[in-house]
Amino acid sequence: MEIQDGRVATIHYTLTGDDGSVIDQSAPDTPLSYLHGASNIVPGLESALTGKQVGDKVQVDVPPELGYGPRHEQLQQVVPLGAFPTGANIMPGMQFEAHGEHGPLVVTVVQVGPDEVTVDGNHPLAGKTLHFAVEVTDVREPTAEELSHGHVHGPGGAHH
To answer: How far apart are CA 123 and CA 127, in angstroms?
Structure first.
């Protein structure tokens, strides 16, 4: 059975950056299962996996426009320290949910000054080429519940 829209694909993957450093990977005993065609993974990887079968191994380079998109400099802003909870020890790398004009947005603290904090609303991987090494370990038909929810459920069904 091959991977196609509406099927559940299970993969082991390693995601690396341009310098070869590992950004993310599936645990050896916990591959990633997703519903193909439901936008559960970045479009460039999903497209590259279409038609693959159990046992196939593939190297995929996903450009930013097919991954997490380009960086948008306007999503980096300087905000007053007072906008954060009183007494919070704000540090670079921390993430907070902000409320923007299009709804909630996760921002990452980039820099902390005495009175201001620079935050970035871009996804941390925006603007980067993603390098995936993937092995397909399973392909199956989804349950009716998975299809109606648009994502894969673990053993025993939905847990949400």
So the answer is: 9
pTM: 0.82
**Dihedrals φ, ψ of 124, to 5°?**
-55, -25
Q: Are 61 and 131 in contact (CB under 8 A)?
A: yes
Distance CA 28, CA 32 (A): 10
* pLDDT tens-place string over residues 37-95: 999 999 999 999 999 999 999 999 999 999 999 999 999 999 999 888 888 899 999 99
Query: Distance (Å, rounded) from C-alpha 25 to C-alpha 16?
Result: 9
Q: Which amino acid is at 24?
A: D
Contact 139, 3 (CB under 8 A): yes
For residue 98, give the nearest of 88, 108, 89 by alpha carbon. Answer: 108
In one-letter notation, the amino acid at residue 53 is: Q
Token pair for residue 38?
Answer: 């439901």
Whole-number Cα distances in Å, 22 to 18, 93, 120, 130, 135: 10, 18, 22, 11, 16
Q: Do residues 105 and 99 touch, judged by C-beta distance below 8 A?
A: yes
